[in-house]
Q: What sequence folds into this?
């Protein structure tokens, strides 16, 4: 599972973290049942506070994407919702953006705007 | 290269692959099975002249463990038959038509084991012929030493009978380094576990060791039991410790840690010279699964066949870790290594 954070960005770190993990789960890069790194290990790995990690994990648990078990850490939920249609739609949007020469940042901005 | 010479090179490689395959079957299966089968037939004809039970374990030169003669008559054939089929199946020649050093190693162990068991167990039966009571036997323990010498001699000659080792270095495919912003932080991690087949083999090995423990406990001395128990605990401990791992790649470099916390392999980012994605065939490349030393000098944590990250260090051996989505992991390591 790939996690990228940028402390220079305006988005809070826990939000970036949850977004990174959410993207991995929705795209299927992390399979159901896979164990996420322990919060303390991930905090050391990313050089952030452990509470930032825990907050992101709790958010993902509330969304039903992961399960938090005492002593066993965080595990990708065994029956996460099927995001197949969304993944396919994202693929076609990205292909369209590439063809029209729209860079990733601009595409992300457009999507964020459409959400408002 | 013209079409003609290309065809000729391909034909030469496939001819040497056929020769390698034949020699691998000879050393790994045909010769060991023939040797142990002949031994079984010869020792079976001695059974009427042997005491019942026979001495199966020695303390110095005095028998201290007893069992049925059939155990010694059939064990070499059964063990070498199973082992021979297993190692020969894994001895597929490389693209150059040769065998890797790891493949050669497991093949010569097969013939060496046949020599050890045939001479060692056969010899201890030989010295007991004509005895009324196996407790009177002597001169049996030394045959295990003769067996060991015979096994080593057979293994060494077989090494030279096999084709020369394929020393082509595994280079692999370089990933496109992940593009990172100067302030960006990155962490990639995955958990890996021993494949089902390898786990099954591990369980069988532990089961056999437990059976051996029971045999020793039934017949052996107090010291023998202690040694066998220690070996058994060590085997189970190593098995558990090397079954599940977590691979982490971040700004600090690569860390592979057992689920138990130990053992742990760390490669700091400043020691990474090169990172690539390679394809691993466990027995041919590393002689098996687990925490391995390859005959070509590479070290590795091998839990299954397939894609793996290979890290070349500025000094010391290359390290290989089998992990899913190895391409992403390699890209992250290449990304944190390159100056921003």
A:
């Amino acid at each position: 599972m790939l996690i990228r954070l940028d402390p220079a960005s305006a988005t809070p770190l826990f939000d970036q973290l949850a977004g990174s993990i959410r993207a991995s789960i929705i795209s299927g890069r992390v399979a159901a049942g896979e164990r996420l790194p322990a919060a303390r290990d991930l905090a050391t790995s990313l050089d952030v506070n452990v509470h930032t990690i825990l907050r992101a994990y709790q958010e993902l648990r509330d969304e039903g994407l992961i399960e938090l078990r005492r002593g066993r850490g965080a595990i990708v939920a065994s029956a996460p919702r099927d995001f197949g249609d969304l993944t396919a739609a994202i693929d076609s949007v990205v292909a369209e953006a590439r063809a029209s020469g729209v860079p990733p940042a601009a595409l992300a901005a457009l999507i964020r705007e459409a959400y408002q | 290269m013209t079409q003609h010479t290309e065809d000729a090179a391909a034909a030469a490689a496939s001819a040497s692959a056929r020769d390698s395959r034949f020699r691998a079957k000879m050393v790994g299966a045909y010769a060991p099975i023939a040797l142990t089968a002949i031994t079984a037939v010869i020792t079976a004809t001695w059974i009427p002249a042997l005491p019942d039970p026979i001495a199966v374990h020695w303390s110095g030169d005095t028998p201290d463990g007893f069992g049925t003669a059939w155990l010694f008559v059939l064990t070499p054939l059964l063990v070498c038959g199973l082992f021979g089929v297993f190692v020969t199946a894994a001895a597929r020649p490389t693209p150059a038509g040769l065998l890797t050093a790891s493949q050669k190693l497991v093949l010569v162990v097969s013939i060496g084991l046949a020599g050890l068991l045939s001479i060692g167990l056969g010899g201890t039966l030989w010295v007991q012929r004509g005895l009324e009571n196996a407790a009177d036997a002597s001169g049996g323990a030394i045959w295990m030493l003769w067996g060991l010498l015979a096994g080593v001699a057979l293994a060494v000659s077989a090494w030279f009978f096999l084709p020369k080792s394929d020393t082509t270095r595994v280079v692999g495919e370089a990933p496109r380094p992940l593009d990172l912003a100067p302030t960006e932080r990155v962490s990639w991690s995955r958990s890996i576990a021993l494949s089902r087949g390898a786990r099954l083999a591990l369980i069988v090995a532990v089961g056999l060791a437990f059976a051996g423990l029971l045999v020793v406990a039934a017949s052996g001395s107090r010291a023998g039991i202690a040694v066998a128990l220690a070996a058994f605990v060590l085997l189970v401990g190593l098995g558990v410790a090397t079954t599940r791992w977590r691979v982490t790649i971040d700004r600090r470099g690569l860390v592979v840690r057992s689920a138990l916390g130990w053992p742990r392999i760390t490669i700091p980012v400043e020691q990474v010279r090169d990172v690539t994605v390679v394809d691993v065939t466990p027995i041919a490349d590393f002689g098996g699964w687990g925490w391995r030393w390859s005959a070509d000098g590479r070290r590795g944590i091998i839990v299954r066949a397939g894609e793996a990250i290979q890290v070349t260090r500025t000094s010391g051996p290359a390290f290989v870790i089998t992990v899913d989505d190895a391409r992403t992991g390699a890209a992250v390591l290449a990304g944190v290594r390159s100056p921003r």
Summary: Chain A has two domains: 1-80, 82-116.
